[in-house]
């Protein structure tokens, strides 16, 4: 079953608790939480205090996507605040420091993820593929919601799905950026099993229908 992870970047953050209730009732699997630092990406979103408040408001799975430089500095704070999975960009630091960040997350008993920007080849995931719980392929340049899906990322999704199958890994394959009812089937066909969607969920009044449409139901 395909999982849907609405990105609350597109939600009305003044009523975040209600927004999360609505997507939960609508059958969402994860809450995708986009963290932007104004340095790794040219935008600033939300951070640890918002995640901590959200943790108190819901028992949904919180999938924290850290678009921040040198995430090793912050991962423990996100774990402590209640993230269920903390995801770091492989481009955000040296390989050694990315490994250190993943170790810190694991040591807190939290699931680990790595993310690849559109310009980063699938091979960049290889050092960590056997040990992480999730790999995220960006299908837009990270930093903003509401961008157009990059169909030229589909071969990368296919390559990663192939490696996950060959190696018999439990690792989930997530896609983020421009996913809607039209592009979701392409991602699913290429082997994605978790679909992030911001505008395609929160841009529609009927969140349940939006989630069903993305899942192809
Ligand atoms: C982009 C974020 C995405 C974004 C997706 O940097 O990582 O999670 O919120 O938004 P949509 O679905 O509108 O492209
Ligand atoms: Zn994201």
Describe this structure in words.
- With 217 residues, this protein is an alpha/beta fold.
- Helix content is 35%, strand content 20%.
- Helix 2 (48-57) links the parallel strand 2 (30-36) and strand 3 (61-67).
- Helix 2 (48-57) packs parallel to helix 3 (75-81).
- The longest helix has 13 residues, at 95-107.
- D-xylitol-5-phosphate binds next to strand 2, strand 8 and helix 8.
Would you identify the CATH architecture?
Alpha-Beta Barrel
Overall mean confidence score, pLDDT: 98
Question: Based on DSSP secondary structure assignment, what is the total number of beta strands?
Answer: 8
SSE pattern: EHEHEHEHEHEHEHEHH
CATH class equals Alpha Beta
Strand content: 15-25%
User: Given the C-alpha coordinates, what overall shape results?
Assistant: globular
Q: Separation of termini?
A: 11 Å
Main sheet record: 8 strands, parallel
* Structural classification: alpha/beta
Number of helices: 9
CATH fold group: TIM Barrel
Count of domains: 1
Record the strand order, biggest sheet: 1-8-7-6-5-4-3-2
Into which percent range does the helicity of residues fall?
25-40%
CA gyration radius, whole angstroms: 16 Å
Uncertain residue ranges: none
In short:
The protein has 217 residues and is α/β, with parallel strands linked by helices.
């Amino acid at each position: 079953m395909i999982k849907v992870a609405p990105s609350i970047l597109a939600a009305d953050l003044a009523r975040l608790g209600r927004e999360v209730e609505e997507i939960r009732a609508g059958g969402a699997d994860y809450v995708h939480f986009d963290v932007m630092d104004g340095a790794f990406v040219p935008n600033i979103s939300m951070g640890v205090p918002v995640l901590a408040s959200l943790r108190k408001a819901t028992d949904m799975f919180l999938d924290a996507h850290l678009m921040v430089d040198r995430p090793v500095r912050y991962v423990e704070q996100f774990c402590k605040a209640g993230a269920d999975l903390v995801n770091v960009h492989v481009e955000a630091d040296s390989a050694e420091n990315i490994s250190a960040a993943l170790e810190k997350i694991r040591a807190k008993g939290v699931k680990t993820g790595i993310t690849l920007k559109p310009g980063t080849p699938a091979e960049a995931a290889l050092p960590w593929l056997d040990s992480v719980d999730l790999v995220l392929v960006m299908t837009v340049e990270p930093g903003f919601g509401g961008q157009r899906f990059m169909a030229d990322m589909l071969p990368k999704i296919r390559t990663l799905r192939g490696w996950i199958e060959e190696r018999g890994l439990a690792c989930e394959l997530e896609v983020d950026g421009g996913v809607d009812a039209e592009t979701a089937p392409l991602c699913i066909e290429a082997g994605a099993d978790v679909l992030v969607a911001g505008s395609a969920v929160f841009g529609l009044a009927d969140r349940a229908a939006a989630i069903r449409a993305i899942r192809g139901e």
